[in-house]
Amino acid sequence: MKKIMIVDDEQISLMMTENILSSQYRIVCATSAKEAINLYHKEKPDMVLSDLRMPPGMSGYELQQTLESQVGEQIPFMFMTADHDDETESKGFENGALDFIRKPFRADVLLRRIGNILQTVEQIQGLRKAAVTDPMTGLLNKASSEEEIGMVCNTTPGILMMIDLDSFKPINDIYGHDMGDKILIRFSEIIKSAVRSTDIVGRIGGDEFIAYCQNVRDENVIANKARYINEELVASAREYMGEDMSIPIGVSIGCVIAPDEGVNFNELFKKADKALYTVKENGKHGYSFFHGENSNTPTIERKSTDLSNIIKLLEERSPASGAFTMPFAQFRVIYQFLTRVRNISQKNVWVLLFTISEHMPVDDDAREKATDTFFSALHTSLRASDIVTQNSKNQFLILLFDTELYNLEIILDRIMKKWHSSEDNDLFEVTYELDNVT
Fold first, then answer.
1. CA–CA separation, 281 vs 275, rounded Å?
2. Rounded to an integer, what distance in angstroms lies between the CA atom of residue 356 and that of residue 213?
3. Rounded to whole angstroms, how far apart are CA atoms 289 and 277?
4. Residue 14, C-beta contacts closer than 8 angstroms, at least 6 positions apart
5. Where are any strands of DSSP class E within 263-417?
6. pLDDT tens, 283-307?
7. How far apart are alpha carbons 62 and 33 in whole angstroms?
């Protein structure tokens, strides 16, 4: 139930207004501006319904201005007045009043106007919340967390924490994105429970979070937080995914102390990110502090992982049929590796280059369609041990491992037959070159 503070120095008027509103709202009453100021901070009402003239002392306008200067934001105010001067009403709206009602007023009119104000306030608050929060976790979004921390770290000492959820991708791969969302939501709850209500917490990326712990500089405090977050996260993951869950889930935290390492947010962010990289490079599941550009002794506490968990991360998730496709950079690494072991393995490894050229000028859509068609022919004609990458818009590279020459001819024939059966065959031509990896 919404709470309304009524401020009126006339006792009878105050009682009548309270009687009208108390059937639908929680009511707190004040008979002076001074009393209203103290009561507002204690009760934090959703809106204020104030008499405009309250001699002696502050007027309703002055009460509004004083409260808003103290809380640092606009407060929903509605004024009651027996004054019928239009200039009074105009001045009130200029000062930020949401509505006026003239005494004496009808009960139904007052209730309707109060209802309209509260509905408008709810809509505004909803829009503000949507603009500054992450919809999944309810934490501050990237822009808002950076803005708030940026303002606070300029004036208040503390520790900036870059918080990364480790091994999150395998959760999506193995258990699905719904489970991934549940883990992210739970992770955000754990982070919030690990810090105080005065600290600032936000989500700045998919599995990346940030926090600023104000007036903290003891590294042991962060050590305890890191330990707590890791323990709670693993316990929650096993609760959601079963006790046999073997994904090495955990948290890595990069930290920097302000103002020791600066007060500018961007500068602190970069240093915390460097500390986070240190954790990632040293086994994850722990924390590290940035201690100056020339420091060679970073503080690291990490949790070790066993071989079975590491192998779990290395394994391919849900392997598909057909050739193994990958970006050119990864293809290049595998090619270099095969050239190193070629003499040891004594296996035939072939590299093929397919080029798609046009018989006549075509538009981009037709060219893209032909490329997709040929890629499909390649993917379905090759084995799971064969590797495909797109070298350019009209070229594909293939590695065929442990393939004899007569089998190579069969594979090429199968690919070309699938291509010639496509409707793009008349507009494009496919040629190939091959070589043996030596």
1. 10
2. 58
3. 11
4. 6, 8, 29, 31
5. 286-289, 299-302, 324-325, 349-358, 387-392, 395-401
6. 778 899 998 764 544 455 555 556 6
7. 9
Q: Are 253 and 274 in contact (CB under 8 A)?
A: no
Would strands 349-358 and 387-392 be described as parallel, antiparallel, or unpaired? unpaired
Query: Residue 147: helix, strand or coil by DSSP?
Result: helix
Distance CA(206)–CA(229), nearest Å, equals: 18
For residues 265 and 158, is the Cβ–Cβ distance under 8 A? no
Longest dimension (CA), the chain: 106
The pTM for the full model equals 0.48
Choose among 373, 380, 351: nearest CA to 428. Answer: 373
Strand ordering across the sheet containing 286-289: 200-203, 208-214, 158-166, 250-258, 286-289, 299-302
Q: Which helix (H) or strand (E) holds 159?
A: strand 158-166
Q: What is the pLDDT of residues 109-138, one digit of tens each?
A: 899 989 988 887 877 666 555 557 888 888
Q: How far apart are CA 242 and CA 244, in angstroms?
A: 5
Reported as type and span, the H/E element at residue 251 is strand 250-258
